[in-house]
Amino acid sequence: MKPGRPKRKGELAPYLIILILCSAILGGALILKPSISEGSHLQVGGITLPNVCIFLRTTGLPCPGCGLTRSVVAAAHGNLALSLSYHRLGLLILLYIILQFMFNLLYLVIPKWRTPLSRSVRVLHKGIILLAALFLLNWIFTLILILS
Predict the structure, then answer these.
(1) Quick one: pLDDT at residue 51?
(2) 13-31 vs 90-109: helix crossing angle, rounded to 10
(3) How many domains does the chain have?
(4) Which residue(s) pair with 54 in the sheet?
(5) Which of 25, 71, 122, 148 has its Cβ near the most Cβ atoms within 10 Å?
(6) Is residue 8 in some structural domain?
(7) Does residue 10 fall inside a structural domain?
(8) Is 57 helix (H, G, I), strand (E, B) or coil?
(9) pTM of the full predicted structure?
(10) Which residues, in sequence order, are CB contacts of 16 under 8 Å at separation 6+?
């Protein structure tokens, strides 16, 4: 078997799925726009979208991801200060999504790079565990600030 070739049928499916998800998120972030004049809402084609966090509406407290979509959209449009005001991890999430997109695209498109890329891609895939821990810590910090 040649290096860089898939060993089994369907081995590339996870890379393709991640690439499609990242493409959809990045495309959505570029289609949506932060609405500065309407408060902290998003707009698409001039239509202002409502904030729909069910956890916030039910408990009055923000969920771990409250503001994340707005943060990623603001960062994708280059407004880093606004992004950080919506969610502390928005920039990091956008960077993670861009890296996932790039590495998975290269892995799928350039077969001879698969062997050198495979370790980096595996580390990047496991990075979701670190992001989950950061989300939990950020949420705890946010709740402490709100409740104190």
Answers:
(1) 81
(2) 130
(3) 1
(4) none
(5) 71
(6) no
(7) no
(8) helix
(9) 0.86
(10) 104, 108
